[in-house]
Design a protein that fits this description.
This protein has two domains: 1-43, no CATH class; 53-193, START domain (Alpha-D-Glucose-1,6-Bisphosphate, Chain A, domain 4, 2-Layer Sandwich), CATH 3.30.530. The chain has five helices and seven strands, in the order ααβααββββββα. A seven-stranded antiparallel sheet has the order 1-7-6-5-4-3-2. With 194 residues, the protein is of the alpha+beta class. Helix content is 34%, strand content 34%.
């Protein structure tokens, strides 16, 4: 297989045509071959072992654990913390916590809209969610564990596991997600200290 917008360089029997025969500069020929190889690899990525990426974050807050849990469990407030456009699109069946188990939040980032569904919600210690639609992923699961610390403080252990359908993008997405989430956690912690 070759890129449709590039001409073939072979003679049909697996041999490359000579540079003089084709009339192409060696550097351009080399670039074409590298692009072709990447294209083939990308098309056959389903045969490549998928890599599970894990993001681990920890942040302390100058606020009681109940206050922090409430802030993270509210979808709209969580969006403000992370600097993202997040809205609840499906309410939980729990009338005491509309953001609880079964609730779905829609997250809009440039050119992408996806949804996350809350699968566990135990005040004030745990929130778990998974991406339920909208992204080319095989698996994405987030776990937020909240802890009480001395002197009225609290902390979060935030773990995310993800596996993308296109393996080459996994590391890039994981790094961008880690940076964005870390910044959001630090900013929220900073606001609580004021």
């Amino acid at each position: 297989m070759h890129l449709p917008w590039f001409p073939r360089f072979g003679d049909g029997r697996g041999r490359l045509l000579g540079i003089r025969q084709f009339g192409m500069h060696p550097a351009l020929l080399n670039l074409h071959l590298q692009i072709n190889n990447f294209y083939l690899w990308l098309n056959h990525s389903k045969y490549i072992a998928m890599k599970m990426h894990e993001i681990k974050l920890y942040q302390e807050f100058a606020a009681p654990v109940e206050q922090v849990w409430d802030a993270f469990s509210d979808h709209a407030n969580f969006g403000k913390m992370m600097g993202q456009n997040i809205t609840r699109v499906i309410d939980s069946t729990d009338p005491g916590n509309l953001n609880g188990v079964g609730s779905v939040r829609s997250i809009k980032i440039p050119m992408v809209v996806f949804e996350e569904t809350v699968v566990k919600s135990e005040k004030p210690s745990l929130i778990e969610y998974r991406i339920s639609s909208g992204l080319p992923i095989n698996y994405h699961y987030g776990t937020m564990q909240f802890k009480t610390l001395p002197n009225g403080k609290s902390a979060i252990d935030y773990n995310i596991k993800l596996e993308l359908k296109v393996p080459v993008l996994g590391s890039i997405v994981a790094l961008a997600l880690k940076r964005g989430m870390s910044k959001g956690l630090r900013n929220y912690a900073g606001r609580l200290e004021k």
